[in-house]
What does this fold into?
Amino acid sequence: MAVKTAQYIFNGQAYNLTYNSTSGKWEATVTAPSKSSYNQPDHVLGGTVKATDEAGNTTTVDQSHATLGASLKLCVKEKTAPTITITSPSAGAYITNTTPTIEFQVKDTDSGVNAGTIAVTVDGTVVSTVTKTVIDGGYKCTCTSPTLKDGSHTISVKASDNDGNAAAAKTATFTVDTVPPTLQITAPSNGLITNKKTVTVSGKTDDVSSKPVTVTVNGATVTVGTDGTFTKDVTLAEGANTITIVAKDKAGKTTTVTRKVTVDTSAPVIKSVTLTPNPVDCGKTFIIAVEITD
It folds into this structure.
């Protein structure tokens, strides 16, 4: 008897096979699923072939067949690499911690992240211990950086999915700054007594790792030049005044300088003048006594 029909059942769909007289085989073109088979049993998808002859006799073979079963197991691989997101320290961050906690996520919504491929380096040094917590679609990872010096540093994270797709290394460059900015106040001098209601505060600030530095004078932001110099006119009240100057770098470290200035706009009062003796003999001396208050 001759074969009448042949059919391939795969991934819930039936495909009719057509006889190819050249190859002598029954064939069909089948579109693979859009998702990886990695999460299926044995990481493969199975199928079934049915052949029916002219007399109506049917033979069925599936992936459990002792001889042909392995031939029906199809491995489907995705081509999209995992996504990596570094959350801390963020790119461009300025921090004061010399051993910061590094946090990042690796996700792959198809074959899944291969946890064994997750690798972290800081300035090229491998971080050996990485804690990986399962989240939807992948892992949330944390680790502690080796001790860092002040200055710029770069985190690099690599990972692959279970189908072997490697993500391009994700990097984040940040700056460690443990030293507060310098702050020099050139005017006014501390303890200044003046009859002016306005005084000019001037000075210079700098920070090796965290330029530019911001400056406030009594809470008001001051423009700082590229060379670190600044000036600010401050209105004073009669009597004692405290001027507070604060320099703050990008890492949040501050240096504070205060200046005490006293304003006295009241002129002294001459209350009395006494000349003794008066009259005085020619060529003799006399004493002048003046009573003054202020």
Notes: The chain is about 0% helix and 50% strand. The chain has three domains: 3-72, 83-176, 182-263.
